Amino acid sequence: MAKQDRAVRTRHALIHSAAEAFERRGYVQATLMEISAAAGVSVGALHFHFTSKAEVATSVEMAAAVRLRRAAEKAQQPGMSALQRLTGTSYALADQLRRDVVSRAGLKLSGDGVREGGLDLRREWQDFVRSVLAEASDQEFRNEPVERNDMADLIFAATTGIELLSRRDPAWASPPLLSTFWRLVLPQVPQS
């Protein structure tokens, strides 16, 4: 059992150090040597867990997806309106990205176009925004001057821009800025 626990800890350490390397230097520039050294293991130990840098990156993406999806699920409480779920989820995801390097690196890797395949976490967010706006009742959406699909595209584009800007300055994804954004976009929705 102790060997299994150590293997799990080593794998988690490698994913964390890979996330730091991918966030700092990007997928192409990050090396397996720096990832293993930061995790405190040999390159051979890294290859015990992962066959390639692409597999390490996929594992970072998968770990990020789990963490981001969990944060989104926790933000959605029973009794919330569709638009409250949307705004609450945006705050939860922004908080997760501020606090967690694996989430940030996984999102950065996702859909980066450098590797074949992989997840597209931004597409998941876009699909979520569209589905929530489709669920919103006419009463919730009553004062909006644009079509719901156009609104979904605007929200997706703006929140993706906020996420990208927050990579250099975390204030872009701060609760006060998000509150201002949501007050401008959806003024009748109570803010989280």
UniProtKB/TrEMBL annotation:
Domain of life: Bacteria
Residues of the DNA-binding region: 31-50
PROSITE patterns (alphabetical): HTH_TETR_1, HTH_TETR_2
One Pfam entry name: TetR_N
All residue ranges annotated as the HTH tetR-type domain in the record: 8-68
Keywords for this protein: DNA-binding, Transcription, Transcription regulation
Protein name: TetR family transcriptional regulator
Organism field: Streptomyces violascens
